[in-house]
Amino acid sequence: LADDKKNQCAIIKLIFKHYLSHGKSLSSSTIFSLPDDLLSSIKQCLTKHEFHLKFYDQAQEYVLKYMLQMCYPKFLIEQQNSPETKRQALTAPKFTPMHRRCISIRKKDVFEKFKQQSNLS
């Protein structure tokens, strides 16, 4: 993704839309939040227009957690209501990482942590 200017622009706009322009912050969530230093770093990169690989790692983590926070409760309800959804999820194409680097373990850890926290509440 780092070489694809169109995708870079789309991701930067997504983060800007949900983070800077509305003053929203995942750190205010009681269910799931990003560390303040990560949010600060993302904001700094956006403000200074410094878009490098480290920024994309941070952006991907932000987007993943944002999607989990927004979509996971709905996903859970749908999963409980329909066994068909489970089969579709198993055959759905896998998410492609933003650049070729092994981050699937981190994604799995984040998802498992989120599931545990959701089950506790």
Automatic annotation (TrEMBL):
UniProt-listed Pfam families: RGS (PF00615)
Gene3D superfamilies in alphabetical order: Regulator of G-protein Signalling 4, domain 2 (1.10.167.10)
Superkingdom of the organism of origin: Eukaryota
Classification via SUPFAM superfamilies: Regulator of G-protein signaling, RGS
Sequence ranges assigned to domain RGS in this UniProt record: 11-76
InterPro entries tied to this protein: RGS (IPR016137), RGS_sf (IPR036305), RGS_subdomain_2 (IPR044926)
Name recorded for this polypeptide: RGS domain-containing protein
Organism: Rotaria socialis
